Amino acid sequence: MGLDPNEAADISQTVWMQLLRSLPSFQRKQRGSFRRWLRVVTVNKVNDFYEQKQKLVEAERIRNTQSLGQIDLSDESASPAILSERQLKLQLILQRIQQEVSPKTWEAFELMMFGEKTSVEIGTILELSPDAVRMSKRRVLDKIRQLWETFDESLT
Asked: What is the rounded CA–CA span in Å between residue 126 and residue 139?
């Protein structure tokens, strides 16, 4: 499905977590239905991953042009020209999450998403296990997803 080994490990972990949550309610309807269900869950998680990755690519473009904290949101002449509505929304969400999570969690997230390093290399740098690095990334992505869906209510 075009994933590198670290991405595949992250998605496998997500699929396992979904499996643990959903297995008690799974009802086998016919032969092979579990494998089919597991494949659907896996494909959906991969699709979710690629959607999140695309959103974060947009954030990286913003980050490369300006640091997250340097845009003056009160300057009406600058913000629409610089950022699309989606980019602005993502920027506000990222700023909020950065304030809510620990500095180590945020750094692990940034290095996993924007760096060229593996979770093992990042873990060595931050003195975390590779699993802790992947969980930091997952926590931030979950917060992004949650705030993205409830953006209008959460920022008022």
From this structure: 17
State both tokens at 15. 């699929």
Tokens 């740098």 correspond to what residue?
A: 125
User: String of b and e for 145-154 (b: at least 16 CB within 10 Å)?
Assistant: eebeeeeeee
pLDDT in tens, 72-93: 444 444 444 445 677 778 888 8
Cα–Cα nearest to 5, from 132, 138, 130: 130
Neighbour count for residue 78 (Cβ, 10 Å): 12
Q: Which residue has the higher pLDDT, 74 or 48?
A: 48
Encoding tokens for residue 115?
A: 């760096």
What is the separation of C-alpha 60 from the centre of its chain, rounded to a whole number of angstroms?
13
CB of 84 closer than 8 Å to CB of 94 = no
Torsion over CA: 38, 42, 45, 51 (sign): negative
pLDDT, tens only, 28-46: 777 767 888 888 888 888 8
